[in-house]
Amino acid sequence: MNKVPMTVRGHELLQEELKKLKSVDRPRVIEAIAEARAHGDLKENAEYHAAKEQQSFIEGRIKDLEGKLSHLQVIDVTAIDAKGKIVFGSTVQLLDEDTGKEIVYTLVGEDEADIKTGMISYTSPIARALIGKSEGDVVSFQAPGGEKIFEVLEVRYV
Question: Where are the beta strands (DSSP E) in the chain?
């Protein structure tokens, strides 16, 4: 399987979530199952069934995270000499030519992407158009609402 790129911060967040699931959530749900079992008849015990369902979710998420972590390529943008070019992990400040509004995006892995916080996947149309560009460049790309044009104001590696 191919390695999946992820930022250092994204990797840390996945590891923290996995640690919490294993050390806090899993033991808590095991305790809840044991407590529900002590109440007797399991067929009509809603607490037991809810705890088993939660356990199933937790175990599935642990498996999912372990799989993702085993296929990651962690990229530290601060250790790369990108020579001012936009690369994976870069934070870019853009000027929307249509609206005059400034926007800041960070190019991240697919699992880290969250448009609300300005984290866009490196596979998105805008990110693909930005990669390799530098400050002062004008970038155009096809968005779902039509062609968008941005000027690159600043490129940071944080």
Answer: 4-7, 72-75, 91-96, 102-108, 119-121, 138-143, 146-156
